[in-house]
Amino acid sequence: MPLRFQPFLLLVLASLAPLLVAQPLSIAAAANLKAALAVLGPAFEAKHPGARVQVSLGASGSLVAQIQQGAPFDVFLAADSEFPARLAAAGLTAGPSFPYATGHLVLWVRKDTGLDPARDGLKVLLSPTVKRISLGKPTLAPFGRSAESSLKRAGLYEALKPKLVFGENVAQAAQYLQAGAAEAGFISSPQALAFALAGGLAWTVPQDLYPAQKQSGVILKGGSQPALAAAFKAYLLSPEAQALLAGQGYGAP
Fold it and tell me: Does residue 2 surpass a pLDDT of 60?
């Protein structure tokens, strides 16, 4: 009798196989990685037939909170090294964190203000023409933290504090600029390259004004695709992926 059902069971298992292979690799990623992962995800899938990359974007701090509450991500790619280290210290990662890129902070100012950050640096923000300055929340978004650090080191934070408008993450800070809700703002270098922000002048903030923003990642214990997560880490650190990240405005790890 058992032998009579064996072909049927084999057919059932065969029909389930594509579903098992197609289970997504779930990546929690800092908002600044949106454009990069739109390229890296499909490139990784092409190298791993059957793999499917699923990306959840947000502020690094917000994603950490989700992971601590049990969100089943396979990989976490942060905008700094501190948030991944926090997860590793809590025993939530399968191994130590790994740096994959260096983020660069950019000040973007609307062209119609007549201001030139390349000439005057952060002091352009003191102009009465600049009424609102957008940035990510420093407690959640590493690029927001870098912006805050830059203003403090330049001795401008207290004077500019009334003008600051905080987004949940660096992507929302850029949205404020796109919507005209702020005349200037701090964003990431990939966002400064975006065509949607072509109506302004971008200036890379000097590195001596904020700590080097080493963007790091971790493979998470709670994920369901450990082998695929390891393969994605290897791909992210490969020369091909590093060249793609460089093209998006990131520095080497």
Answer: no
